[in-house]
Specification:
Length: 417
């Protein structure tokens, strides 16, 4: 059977009726940014079903505009922390109390096409919800002028060493309620975050519950507050796509001006993430100003967001060339020359399909075709060698963590089409 057919079958097996789970067992719910990539993959063969992926995700939107990282349409014993541990949340469907990188708007732009064939009806159907989602990031998840994050899970890059400077400042809650992890029951524990990291992840959840999931308080008073290049660049790109959509739909001057203001804020904030020492955009702890210590696979998303100075971009390209000489498969999630690089441990090294997708897209859009092609080809080689895994060892191409993974199948389809 062809890999393209296996990819379609993988998405069909992970379909739970209008929404798609990342993989059975390990991740049995709908995840926010996963669904955006999944929709793009499904769109290569079934546009109506792809659109349902978008609208089902939007069904979970909170009254304040947030779209949570996970929507719990059931209470599945396979996953922890599920709905009971997150507690009562204000959305229409039980959910987590944090978001994820807002790639949805850019996916909607791509799904609805370009030129005279573009689907303005579908854009109009979701515009207000997308606008509210972006507004939520700018109003409720902004600190010191930059979009922030309150939880490593919100960044989509759980145990990336970027978060260690923020996690080191935190104490595990002395009254942390006991719990049993489920992730380690599904996959090899050496691929997953450590116990201390989990205790801190759960401590942040306990704090969120204690303030009734008041998102402003979570940002201002919570135990963890960092700026993330992943969320920053994805939101900036999405704001630009939202502006194009607003203009296309003839939205009011107020709406257009609000989005223009968010873009100006984002452009100005990129410098906050720039580490001259590393020649990279990296995460920073907002309260202490400390930079993280390595080049990650979201450092090059400046191309995707079309931001950064020519000098900054040149240094990012130099770093990419250096890293390409160290690994067999681009793009590792953490710098192979940095401390804490672990080629199999989740966000400490493995290659992530959705990241390669966005990085390659940004590089191609800004004329860096050779690197873009390398980043696409390397992921395709890893898939050909190992199958549709969640992520891949950058030294060997072996699959890591979850099997039969939706976004890997979706990225393959998006590129093969
Ligand atoms: C927590 C579903 C998600 C991805 C994230 C990835 C991982 C969850 C976990 O799986 O996170 O949200 O339990 O490890 O880090 O990017 O969306 O695929």
């Amino acid at each position: 059977m062809s890999l393209t057919q296996i990819a379609i079958d993988t998405l069909a097996k992970n379909d739970r009726g209008g929404f798609t789970i990342p993989t059975a067992g390990l991740y049995p719910y709908q995840w926010n940014w996963d669904s955006a990539f999944i929709a793009l993959g499904i769109a290569t063969y079934d546009m109506d079903r792809a659109w349902a992926e978008v609208t089902s995700l939007l069904e979970g939107q909170w009254p304040d505009g947030m779209i949570p990282s996970i929507i719990f349409r059931s209470d599945d014993p396979d996953y922890f922390p599920g709905p009971s541990r997150w507690g009562k949340t204000p959305g229409p469907i039980p959910s987590t109390g944090v978001s994820q990188p807002p790639v949805l708007t850019t996916a909607v732009m791509q799904l609805t096409g370009t030129g005279s064939n573009r689907d303005t009806a579908r854009r109009a159907e979701v515009f207000d919800q997308l606008f509210a989602y972006h507004k939520w990031f700018h109003d409720n998840r902004t600190a010191k002028g930059i979009v922030a994050t309150v939880h490593p899970w919100e960044t989509g890059r759980d145990n990336c060493p970027e978060w260690n400077i923020g996690l080191d400042l935190m104490q595990v809650a002395p009254d942390l309620a006991p719990y049993t992890r489920m992730d380690n029951k599904h996959v090899d524990a050496s691929f997953r975050p450590t116990q201390e990291q989990y205790d801190k992840y759960l401590t942040i959840i306990q704090f969120g519950q204690s303030v009734g999931w008041d998102q402003r308080r979570l940002t201002e008073e919570g135990p963890f507050l960092m700026a993330d290049p992943n969320i920053h660049f994805i939101l900036l790109r999405a704001d630009k796509d939202l502006l194009a959509m607003a203009r296309d739909l003839g939205k009011s001057a107020d709406v257009v001006a609000a989005i223009e203001g968010w873009i100006a804020k984002g452009e100005a904030a990129s410098d906050f993430l720039w580490s001259e020492e590393l020649g990279a955009f990296t995460a920073r702890d907002i309260r202490t100003g400390a930079f993280s210590k390595g080049f990650s696979n979201c450092s090059p998303l400046c191309f995707y967001a079309d931001t950064g100075t020519p000098e900054q971009r040149a240094r990012i390209l130099e770093n990419l060339q250096r890293i390409a000489s160290k690994v067999d498969y681009m793009l590792p999630s953490w710098d192979p020359d940095a401390d804490e690089f672990e080629p199999q441990r989740y966000w400490c090294g493995p290659v992530w399909p959705q990241m390669n997708f966005m990085v390659a897209q940004g590089l191609a859009e800004t004329g860096e075709d050779t690197l873009a092609q390398l980043i696409r080809d390397d992921l395709c080689r890893a898939i050909e060698k190992s199958g549709f895994w969640e992520c891949f060892n950058p030294l060997t191409g072996e699959g890591c963590v979850g099997k039969n993974f939706s976004w890997t199948a979706a990225v393959w389809l998006s590129w093969q089409h």
